[in-house]
Design goal:
Blueprint (H helix, E strand, L loop, with lengths): L17 E7 L3 E3 L4 E8 L4 E6 L2 E3 L5 E4 L4 E4 L10 E7 L2 E4 L6 E14 L4 E3 L4 E10 L3 E6 L2 E2 L7 E4 L8 E9 L4 E4 L3 E6 L3 E7 L3 E3 L4 E8 L4 E6 L2 E3 L5 E4 L4 E4 L10 E7 L2 E4 L6 E14 L4 E3 L4 E10 L3 E6 L2 E2 L7 E4 L8 E9 L4 E4 L3 E6 L3 E7 L3 E3 L4 E8 L4 E6 L2 E3 L5 E4 L4 E4 L10 E7 L2 E4 L6 E14 L4 E3 L4 E10 L3 E6 L2 E2 L7 E4 L8 E9 L4 E4 L3 E6 L3 E7 L3 E3 L4 E8 L4 E6 L2 E3 L5 E4 L4 E4 L10 E7 L2 E4 L6 E14 L4 E3 L4 E10 L3 E6 L2 E2 L7 E4 L8 E9 L4 E4 L3 E6 L10 H16 L5 E2 L1 E3 L33 E4 L22 E3 L2 E4 L11 H10 L11 E2 L1
Parallel strand pairs: 2-10, 11-18, 20-28, 29-36, 38-46, 47-54, 56-64, 65-72
Antiparallel strand pairs: 1-3, 3-7, 4-5, 4-8, 6-7, 8-9, 10-12, 12-15, 13-14, 13-16, 16-17, 16-18, 19-21, 21-25, 22-23, 22-26, 24-25, 26-27, 28-30, 30-33, 31-32, 31-34, 34-35, 34-36, 37-39, 39-43, 40-41, 40-44, 42-43, 44-45, 46-48, 48-51, 49-50, 49-52, 52-53, 52-54, 55-57, 57-61, 58-59, 58-62, ...
Length: 882
């Protein structure tokens, strides 16, 4: 019996929208006024939306929506708020829209503008001008016209016509617009209407047209018309005010001061106002100037003129009217003429001077004189002669050369062949250039020397002078042929002497600074030269003119006896290794050099090689087996060479590297087999051999090979061989090699297995002399439990597992147990009886004596050796030997 209630659900009942009506406060509005619009409707829970045409109207700074949205108030209405306005009314169940309301809004006048036609500021008197006024206004505005802010009496229309306009109608025109509904006025900006009289009768009047340069002139321009502007022209260029041009009287007067020759015109004036223009007549000036730029020209155009030639002087000047001329010579009036040209025919020396001309303008009354021009009249060059006291000179002496010539204003140039001679530390040019002095004359100053003489109108060259200059002797050199230092006795040698000398030098020969008696020629021949002619040769050159001597550098001539009979000797060629040997090399000849060779290799000094006696003796200490040679010596001198006989050495050495080889190559050999031991040694001569078993001499041989045929147990032992060199008397023994003889597994009749094992152990002990220990186990043929005790009374702690190695020390050796407990069997009849399969071990006693060189190794080492032994043939018992 449970109850549960649902959430409540609201049911709202609404009256639908109907009779939506929009009512404005007015539809005829003035701009910037306010208006209210009210929206009414039947229904409940109403919502209102205002529309301007299709756009939603929202509240703003000039729009208020009140009364729950049913009232719309617009303040500051603008001309654009014409509508249509409507309102939409709605509730959640229905909606409706009101009627549309349009507003008529009066505004203006605004933007009042005045237009003039034709559109210009200035208008010619008598023309027609139309002024039009416009304004933005609703309803349309009415207009009034004002001139200079005074009401114009002629109309109230938007257009004002000024036909046949006169000067008195000039003024600032404006129009005023009026809206009868808004009751507002607005006036346009004023527009100037200027009425002008056109330009006419333009006349230019100068103060004068005939002027002197640097004077002044005034030009006046007159014209009919109003508001006139003046522009002055010089030809087509506008004349503007400057430091010498003034424009005054409102531009109607032009004054030019400091008139120049270029101010000739034509000058004119242009007159204009905004409605017309005109130009005056042209005025030209005649301007007198100069004389200026007075110039004198000489033909031919040169400074110097040859006596008797013709010279024309011409004078020119810039002048208006043309100038007249006077001629001056050295600033004195010349008597020969006043024309612009002065002719000097067949000119003489006395007419040399500075000429000038003076120009005169009769109108400007000015004078100007040209710069002076020098006319130099010269005597031409002739008879040029070069003289000197002597042309035969000694080098380093001095010489003077003099040059003479007819003529005036002479210049001198000295030449050596075609090269100009200039002053230097050993060349002086004096006497105005006419004298040339050369000090410290050199052999190259032979010439030809000449002098060139000139003046500006002519020139000439002297005769050529050659000098013969004696010099030297210099650079004395001695040459030897053939060109070598050493010469073989009996050969021919030629010595040649040369010197730089003028005249040619004579020669003397010297040997070791002593005059040679055989000649004074530039060549000295030494035929079939002998040892006594060895020495330092030099030659001395002499110039009979300069009286100078010079001697060459000495040149050594060495005469050598050629190498021959090269012999190599030594006391003995039969050597022992590590001994010493001397080799001596002898040869005929002089200035000998020795080189020792071993085969083709050069022998040099070292810690065991000495080369003495100037290289002729070679000593080798600690001779090795490789020093067999062949040894030889090479002997040479600068003239010849030779090589000795070859010497070979027989070197006895060794024995070394003695080695013993066993065949077959194994440690264990079967009893009855054949074993071959071979001994080898490095030895010269070949070694002889002795054989040892266990360090005891073997009686069977001295050959390098020992044959053990049908080897027996008693031959087991350490074998070694000793090599002997009868020449070196040296011995060397090989390392010992163990030969172990083993019995086959089937024992001989009469001996039990234990007996055989005991014998083997005993044999090894005897052979090894206490140095070889053995450990064996065997299976007894009879049932025995007896244990052998060590001789020292200690009982083994390791029965059945071999002797413990811990009881041994480095100074202990093994003693073998007494084997009497093992029964012997008859070799022929006893057969082994397998009565007991247990293992019995021989006990080994320790004998605490000093260890010999053949002491057995530790047990562990022994066991390792046992494990590494090669497999034994079938039929052998296993044993371990150390």
């Amino acid at each position: 019996m449970r109850y549960q209630t649902s959430s409540p659900a609201l049911v709202s009942v609404l009256v639908p929208v109907s009779n939506v009506v929009l009512t404005p406060s007015s539809t005829d509005l003035l701009e910037f006024s306010s208006v209210n619009l009210s929206c009414s409707s039947n229904g409940s829970s109403l919502s209102f939306i205002w529309l301007n045409d299709s756009s939603v109207v929202t509240a703003s700074d000039r729009v208020q929506i009140t009364d729950g949205g049913s009232t719309l108030t617009i303040t500051n209405v603008t001309r654009h708020d014409t509508g249509p306005f409507s309102c939409k009314v709605s509730n959640p169940v229905s909606g409706g829209q009101s009627n549309a309301v349009y507003f008529s809004i009066s505004y203006g006048p605004d933007n009042v503008k005045l237009a003039i036609s034709p559109s210009q500021v200035y208008h010619e008197k008598g023309s027609d001008v139309i002024l039009s006024c416009s304004a933005v206004s609703k309803p349309s505005a009415s207009f009034k016209w004002f001139v200079n802010d005074t009401l114009h009496s002629d109309g109230t229309d938007p257009e004002l016509r000024l036909n046949n306009i006169q000067m008195g109608q000039t003024g600032n025109y404006s129009c005023q617009a009026h809206n009868s509904k808004t009751m507002r006025y607005q006036t346009s900006s004023p527009a100037l209407v200027s009425v002008l009289v056109p330009v006419s009768n333009v006349v230019l009047t100068p103060s004068s047209t005939d002027l002197l340069e640097f004077s002044s002139v005034t030009l006046s321009c007159s014209s009919s018309g109003s508001s006139l502007s003046f522009r002055w022209m010089n030809d087509s260029s506008v004349v503007t005010a400057s430091d010498r041009v003034q424009i005054t009287d409102g531009g109607s007067t032009l004054t030019i001061t400091n008139v120049t020759r270029h101010d000739t015109g034509p000058f004119s004036c242009k007159v204009s106002n905004p409605v017309s223009g005109g130009q005056s007549n042209a005025v030209y000036f005649s301007i007198s100037y100069g004389p200026d730029n007075v110039k004198l020209a000489i033909s031919p155009s040169q400074v110097y003129y040859e006596k008797g030639s013709d010279v024309i002087l011409s004078c020119s000047a810039v002048s208006k009217p043309s100038a007249s001329f006077n001629w001056l010579l050295n600033d004195t009036l010349h008597s020969d003429g006043t024309d612009p040209e002065l002719r000097l025919s067949n000119i003489e020396i006395g007419q040399t001077g500075n000429y000038s001309c003076q120009a005169h303008n009769s109108k400007t009354m000015r004078y100007q004189t040209s710069s002076p021009a020098l006319v130099s009249v010269l005597v031409p060059v002739s008879n040029v002669v070069l003289t000197t006291r002597s042309t035969d000179l000694l080098e380093f002496s001095s010489v003077n050369l003099s040059c003479s010539s007819n003529g005036s204003s002479l210049s001198f140039i000295w030449l050596n062949d075609s090269s100009v001679v200039t002053a230097s530390d050993r060349v002086q040019i004096t006497d105005g250039g006419s004298t040339l002095t050369i000090t410290n004359v050199t052999r190259h100053d032979t010439g030809p020397f000449s002098c060139k003489v000139s003046n500006p109108v002519s020139g000439g060259q002297s005769n050529a002078v050659y000098f013969s200059i004696s010099y030297g002797p210099d650079n004395v050199k001695l040459a030897i042929s053939p060109s070598e230092v050493y010469h073989e006795k009996g050969s021919d040698v030629i010595l040649s002497c040369s010197a730089v000398s003028n005249p040619s030098a004579s020669f003397k020969w010297f040997v070791n600074d002593t005059l040679h008696s055989d000649g004074i020629d530039p060549e000295l021949r030494l035929n079939n030269i002998q040892m006594g002619q060895t020495g330092n040769y030099s030659c001395q050159a002499h110039n009979s003119k300069t009286m100078r001597y010079q001697t060459s550098s000495p040149a050594l001539v060495s005469v050598l006896v050629p190498v021959s009979n090269v012999v190599l000797t030594t006391r003995s060629t039969d050597l022992l290794e590590f001994s010493s040997v001397n080799l001596s090399c002898s040869s005929n000849g002089s200035s000998l050099s020795f080189i020792w060779l071993n085969d083709s290799s050069v022998v040099t000094a070292s810690d065991r090689v000495q080369i003495t006696d100037g290289g002729s003796t070679l000593t080798i200490t600690n001779v090795t087996r490789h020093d067999t040679g062949p040894f030889s010596c090479k002997v040479s001198n600068p003239a010849s060479a030779g090589q000795s006989n070859a010497v070979y050495f027989s070197i006895s050495y060794g024995p070394d590297n003695v080695k013993l080889a066993i065949s077959p190559s194994q440690v264990y050999h079967e009893k009855g087999s054949d074993v071959i031991l071979s001994c080898s040694a490095v030895s010269n001569p070949s070694a002889s051999f002795k054989w040892f078993v266990n360090d005891t001499l073997h009686s069977d041989g001295t050959d390098p090979e020992l044959r053990l045929n049908n080897i027996q147990m008693g031959q087991t032992g350490n074998y070694s061989c000793q090599a002997h060199n009868s020449k070196t008397t040296r011995y060397q023994t090989s390392s010992p090699a163990l030969v172990s003889v083993l019995v086959p597994e089937i024992a001989p009749e009469g001996l039990s297995g234990g007996a055989i094992a005991g014998i083997i152990i005993l044999v090894l002990a005897v052979v090894g002399g206490g140095s070889v220990g053995a450990f064996m186990y065997f299976r007894s043929t009879k049932n025995r439990n007896q244990q052998l005790k060590p001789s020292n009374g200690n009982t083994s702690n390791n029965p059945g597992n071999g002797q413990s190695n811990s009881a041994y020390t480095a100074n202990e050796e093994l003693n073998y147990a007494n084997l009497s407990d093992f029964p012997m069997r008859n070799k022929a009849t006893d057969q082994p009886k397998i009565e007991d399969s247990s293992s019995h071990y021989a006990q080994v006693r320790v004998n605490r004596k000093a260890t010999t060189t053949t002491s057995p190794p530790p047990y562990d080492t022994h066991m390792q050796h046992v494990k590494s032994l090669a497999p034994q043939p079938e039929g052998y018992r296993q044993s371990a030997l150390i």
